[in-house]
Each structure stands twice: as C-alpha cells, then as structure tokens.
Amino acid sequence: MRQYNVHEAKTQLSALLERVEGGEEIIIARSGRPIARIVPLREVRRPRVLGLYRGQPFAIADDFDTLPADIQERFEGEGG
Fold first, then answer.
1. Are strands 26-30 and 2-5 parallel, antiparallel or unpaired?
2. Angle at Cα 70 formed by Cα 69 and Cα 76, nearest 5°?
3. Fewer Cβ atoms within 10 A, N terminus or C terminus of the chain?
C-alpha cells in the first residue's frame, strides 16, 4: 500500500483511482498521519425482487417432501 499526502492525492486523483480499479489500496495522509484508505469496491449485489414470477405457473411434485426410509428413520430416532 502506497501512502499519499492530501495534496498529492488531490492532484493525482484520476491516476490513483485507476490504480484502485486495478486492485491496489491507497492510503491518504495528512501531516504524515494516515486518515483514509481508498479500496476497490466489491461487486454490489442487487436486492432480490419479491414477486418476480408472480402469475407464472409452477408445479411441486407430490412427493417433494418424502425422504428415503433410512433417512426418515434417523430423523425419528430409529435404526441409528
């Protein structure tokens, strides 16, 4: 991580941002004391949209919640 004083950061902002886009972290200091860190943003996830498939048909199998017998027995405390 390279450290820049405020004046350097102001005059070289575009170049510093290019470096950050490349994955580098930049420290900005005032009077030699670090005060800020510029880091690349992680990809922002979009919030899920509720009701996205509203009104579209779908089917659930009749046996969607049926377990194999050996697993069912373990849940019920038998055979294990």
1. parallel
2. 85
3. C
Q: Is 49 helix (H, G, I), strand (E, B) or coil?
A: coil
Integer Cα distance of 24 and 10 in angstroms: 17
- Segment (H or E) for 18: helix 13-21
2-38 under CATH 3.40.1620, yes or no? yes
Please state, in angstroms and rounded to a whole number, the distance separating the CA atoms of residues 72 and 12.
65
Rounded to 10 degrees, the C-alpha dihedral 15/17/23/24 comes to 70
Q: Global pTM?
A: 0.52
59 three-class SS: coil
Beta bridge pairs of residue 26: 2, 38
Residue 74, both tokens = 């373990």
